[in-house]
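Practice record 12: protein with calcium ion.
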Amino acid sequence: AKADGRGQFRFFSPEQDASARARRALEADLRLAIERGEIALAYQPIVATATGQITSVEALARWSHPVHGPIPPDLFVSLAEESGLIHALGALVLRRACADATNFAVDVRVAVNLSPLQFQGGALCEQVRAILAETGLDPHRLQLEVTEGLVIRDVEATFHELNRLRAQGIHIHLDDFGVGYSSLGYFQRFRFDTVKIDKSFVDTIATSASARAIIGAVVGLGGALGMKVVAEGVEEAAQMELLVALGCTHLQGYLFSRPVSAEAVRALLAQPAAP
Ligand code: C2E
Ligand code: CA
Ligand code: CA
Ligand code: CA
């Protein structure tokens, strides 16, 4: 705290004050956007390198603010997490992704990102079950992406909830692997279906021997534990070649497709695989 000109104490500088106000205003707009269903989903393909086929698409939330335009998902998701809106946002995303996926080719799965906070309250499994019933999506076609941060709070409760989801036939992905507080012990407690190697390793794959060693080790771990390994953020053909050489079987990134609308991804899925 510091004294301002009138001898009062302020806890924030004027700049911090203004940015806190802007955040609160954005939060109010986000609340409205969620209520009105004005959050869109973009879908990004995950491609099997052996066949060139799209095996799955990841749903990514999009919010275009009426004044400020597109807001980065990292920003509005964290805003939703801070304000408790994450439950409404998470439900909206899940419901829409499941509904959209019923219109995609039947052999394609849809991956939905979950915030660790959606595990709090213990009602996630019931919510997912209800949304699957409501939309008619086969549970085997749903994949849920969780991050390492998930496991920090209540380890037992989290693995219990993950097991309940998995018992329904839903696949569980460990997202952004390698950048959080990972513990290899988690793999002993829970068998993730897929591990997603974070983009930061892919970014440096051409120049960093340690990035290549880490990716190779994760591929080996995945093979040994029966987990699929996906590399994300693949932008260049040279990165793809190195990843394939390291044994990565599934890739995601701008090289294949940016995240696109549900209609556009349906059109992509209808095309034959590239030779
Ligand atoms: P994420 O789950 O790691 O998603 C992958 C991000 O990488 C997406 O960013 C995607 O557009 C971007 N990306 C994919 N391929 C490439 C590439 O080749 N190059 C580059 N530069 N970027 C690539 P996006 O859509 O901005 O989302 C950012 C993050 O926001 C996501 O990271 C996820 O953590 C979060 N997020 C997005 N949608 C949701 C959601 O519905 N729920 C939750 N809880 N989080 C979400
Ligand atoms: Ca993800
Ligand atoms: Ca990721
Ligand atoms: Ca990420």
